[in-house]
Amino acid sequence: MTVWCVLAFAFVGRGTPAPFDPPRRLVVRGPYRFVRNPMYVGAATALASAALYYQSLSLLAYVAVFMLATHLFVVWYEEPTLSRMFGDDYAAYRARVRRWLPSWPLL
Prior knowledge:
Elements: H1 2-11, H2 38-54, H3 57-96
Helix pairs in contact: 2-3
């Protein structure tokens, strides 16, 4: 999933996921068709899966802290920045694609 997201940023967005080289075009293809933050969702899913596999409450607590920090970062920094960069295109994308959970059915 991460490779797919990075490639979408590089080839569609003409940039990277890193704040020092952001995309020049709004990326709404690939995994971004289904959820606005697929890399964060993928990381949280991997961490939660490890917590379940290892039956680790401390790792599960880390997942909660990770998701809270990520949510605050997305709401307070990432979304306002994308709104400034991409204006109405980003507003339309936000209206049709959810932040954390994909809309069902996917097909």
